[in-house]
Amino acid sequence: MEAALQEKLKGLMASKLSREMRLYLDTCARCGICIEACHAYASMPETRYTAVARAETIRRLFRRYFKAEGRLLPGLGETIELDDAALEKVHETAYTCTGCRRCMTYCPFGIDTQMIQGIAKLLLIGADREPKLLTMLADMSIAKGETIRDTKGAFEQAVRNLEAEVIEKWRGEAGREAIPVGVKGADVLYVALAGKHSIIPAAAIMNAAGEKWSLSYFEAVNFGAFVGNPEKTREISRRIIDEATELGVREVAICECGTAYRVMKHQTGRHPFEVISFVDLMERYLRDGRIRVDRAKLDGSRVTYHDPCQMARNGGVIEEPRRVLRELAGDFVEMRPNRGENWCCGGGGGLVAMGEKDFRMKSARVKAEQVRATGATVLATACENCHTQLSDLNEHYGMGVRVAFLSQLVADALVQA
Ligand code: SF4
Ligand code: SF4
């Protein structure tokens, strides 16, 4: 590796060394409590899939360049040189970890492996070795923000083409748009994903609740966060923050996408509006009697719920989906473990978007077993990544369930007054 590149990478690493991060890198007692917590290790018991082994490459680089003993006596102690071999290792650890933070829940020091992997991902970007597809997708999101004035018309036309399908689920008031866009003073700005599955059920539910809402021109997904690029993450979030501020909305409701929700809710600072998940909104509508659902729609189905890591453990949306499901289903059963301790589906951290499947399937064997043990026929979730991964697992392991978004189940059960 050229000296200039090595210096650049050391600089990037230094930019991540907050007090908290230094504590994480200095503290690990190698007690091994976190080992069994990782779904990848539990499914494929190899040392390289433990949280502690994933962090070790970064710890050795840290000791080598940022601790006195490593700088003075690099030959002694556990250090490694920042070279091509180290970057290969960094790539493997970064993109076999979903950033689910289940290991952190069990670690007595609360060491955040996802945060440590943030260094790994930044080093890969600096060395131009990150998964290019993720960077390309992040750049496309940013470009959409820059060209929105020219593309608004095409977007609005595409939305008009979906309205008939919304009306099939809920007949709204005559003359009222089924998918309103660009509504100044709307109470809720709903930020969807690119597919119509993320728009139609949500639109029907908000119309049924009589909500004054508006669909965002932008997709919720944040590929900047998946690839670990802080600037791109901020830029992608900023488009939505600007839109919400300009419209003067009270709330921004993020669709069923765990990372999008966590980034917008917990990592973008304070705003003149509240950030909520669409699950929160559905639960509120049911609680306030603004929508009613027909439980008969799920008669004969045993339903279970997969807690998306970025919504539940890392986002705090835990009881709301359960309250929604108890309204919907007579036979709702929990997976074990659940809530903040739920097994990751194995598709986060950009793994689903990258398209790789072999590792995703092998490393999530425990998830498939956990679902099967419930005896459920419907597997509900509230995250796009999880939905894709669980659908793939369903096929791969013959789980025999119907994987469904929570919003889809609610929209299909709406009772028209
Ligand atoms: S964050 Fe999740 S995937 Fe990564 S090491 Fe911890 S438990 Fe495993
Ligand atoms: S539980 Fe925490 S301290 Fe123990 S090995 Fe894992 S990361 Fe290190």
TrEMBL record:
<keyword id="KW-0004">4Fe-4S</keyword>
<dbReference type="GO" id="GO:0051539">
    <property type="term" value="F:4 iron, 4 sulfur cluster binding"/>
</dbReference>
<dbReference type="GO" id="GO:0016491">
    <property type="term" value="F:oxidoreductase activity"/>
</dbReference>
<keyword id="KW-0249">Electron transport</keyword>
<keyword id="KW-0813">Transport</keyword>
<dbReference type="InterPro" id="IPR017896">
    <property type="entry name" value="4Fe4S_Fe-S-bd"/>
</dbReference>
<dbReference type="GO" id="GO:0046872">
    <property type="term" value="F:metal ion binding"/>
</dbReference>
<feature type="domain" description="4Fe-4S ferredoxin-type">
    <location>
        <begin position="19"/>
        <end position="48"/>
    </location>
</feature>
<keyword id="KW-0479">Metal-binding</keyword>
<dbReference type="InterPro" id="IPR004017">
    <property type="entry name" value="Cys_rich_dom"/>
</dbReference>
<keyword id="KW-0408">Iron</keyword>
<protein>
    <submittedName>
        <fullName>(Fe-S)-binding protein</fullName>
    </submittedName>
</protein>
<dbReference type="Pfam" id="PF02754">
    <property type="entry name" value="CCG"/>
</dbReference>
<dbReference type="InterPro" id="IPR017900">
    <property type="entry name" value="4Fe4S_Fe_S_CS"/>
</dbReference>
<dbReference type="InterPro" id="IPR009051">
    <property type="entry name" value="Helical_ferredxn"/>
</dbReference>
<dbReference type="Pfam" id="PF13183">
    <property type="entry name" value="Fer4_8"/>
</dbReference>
<keyword id="KW-0411">Iron-sulfur</keyword>
<feature type="domain" description="4Fe-4S ferredoxin-type">
    <location>
        <begin position="88"/>
        <end position="118"/>
    </location>
</feature>
